[in-house]
Amino acid sequence: MKNVIIAGSGNAALCAGIAALENGAKVLMLEKADQDMSGGNTKYTAGAMRFAYENGSSLLPLLQNPDDPRIATTDFGSYPREKFASDLLGFNGGRPLSVEQETLVSESYDAMAWLSSHDVKFDPIYARQSFKKDGRDVFWGGLTLASANEGVGLFDQELDAFTRMGGEIRYNCAVTELVTDGDAVTGVKTSTRETLMADSVILACGGFEANADLRKTHIGDDWDKAKVRGTPHNTGDGLVMAQKLGAQTYGFFGGCHATPMDLHMVDYGNLDIPAGERKNYRKICYFLGVMLNAKGDRFVDEGINFRNYTYAQFGAAIMEQPEHFAWQIFDAKVADLLYAEYNFHDAHYVEAESLDELITKLDGVDQAGATATLSAYNDAVNDDVAFDPTVLDGKSTTGLALAKSNWAQKIDQGPFRAYPVTGGITFTYGGLKVNGQGCILHENGAPISGLYACGEMVGGVFFEGYPGGSGLTSGVVFGRRAGKGAAGS
């Protein structure tokens, strides 16, 4: 029986642990945080999983409640591998699909079925990924399922599976150093001053998003000011430890998963509220309105695509604006379409009965610029096309230097609301190079014996953007691979 140590306890770590256990290993998981803060970034997510599927019937084995009566009147559509690959390719900045991306696409459904076989189940995302149309729930954007209770629920289900299979987890126990014998990794040293020996070590301890100095070094000067949406514990420790052994860095270090966040959110999503509510600081309904920067200008095409494909890029775009903030502007026509986080008890916004009055309440914004921008936008909206949030409806503006390509409605019905946002960082893209078994490669191309990686530690999965839900699926795919590899199967 192989002894496997895993650093970290998030989605990827737990999937690695489950895979190692089912392949006959004894697994000890070491978590830097206390029990309440365990789980890495997983608890901060919406628990949504993007994967290729053929039709609604192929989703039924994955569901917590396949007998839900709503399913009979639901159109899930399909999300073929070719579409998943195309969506990833659209964020690659001209790069071809990487080996890691091809693996993510080809193994995504099997990974979900594998999780389901361990009683990790999912629910359709009716509240966020579907709209009512002709009496049916119509899903859009290829993202259909999430864990009940979102990221917290996913963590709980995976942890239950891990411990049920005999896995052990220790909290307040960070891996601080890798123990080696020659060129092979043979164990770890911990913050509790222990040396623990193992046949294999899996680094699943996240990227460097909670390290302001590393963000500034790798992503850019503005990024030391980004709000950290997730755990404070992902400070790049695994990357640093592996690099000391000559591990090959890989992927796009200048990119990260970002998202528009409440400007007044404290770092780490306000640790004083329950983990499941921290996601409510996201503000991703910009496609129903417009965003203005400090000059009063629009700076992105808010309707260029479904928000699943734009929020990571737009979160980064906000960080590039003067003073790193923007305002999201909505009118009463879309009030009932805004997601729950816009009515979250801690959401910050201003409200007014007229658009002119609203503009006076936009702190830090050039009011003349905002007035001109909103007036020009309203004049440019094409009223001849019907608004339909279930599709790329082509309801656009005409004649503007920066168009709104879909879902462009005039902002003309009070009351009006505006929400201040900034860029929130969730995870970083640059990581390490691994082989087909999840083993980390040395700079010379050879595997580092006994050392594996998964989750945010794996580079080459994402580059200049991110289709929503892919990150958790990547954790499952590469976590499963690393666990199996570390167990020697």
Automatic annotation (TrEMBL):
Keyword NAD attributed:
no
Record's InterPro entries?
A: FAD-dep_OxRdtase_2_FAD-bd (IPR003953), FAD-oxidoreductase_2 (IPR050315), FAD/NAD-bd_sf (IPR036188), Succ_DH/fumarate_Rdtase_cat_sf (IPR027477)
- Keyword Ribonucleoprotein present in the record's keywords: the answer is no
Keyword set, alphabetical order: FAD, Flavoprotein, Oxidoreductase
What domain of life?
A: Bacteria
Q: Which cofactor does it need?
A: FAD
> What range(s) does the FAD-dependent oxidoreductase 2 FAD-binding domain occupy?
4-470
Cite the PANTHER family for this sequence.
Answer: FAD-DEPENDENT OXIDOREDUCTASE 2 FAD BINDING DOMAIN-CONTAINING PROTEIN, FUMARATE REDUCTASE
Q: What is this protein called?
A: Tricarballylate dehydrogenase
Q: Which organism is it from?
A: Paramylibacter ulvae
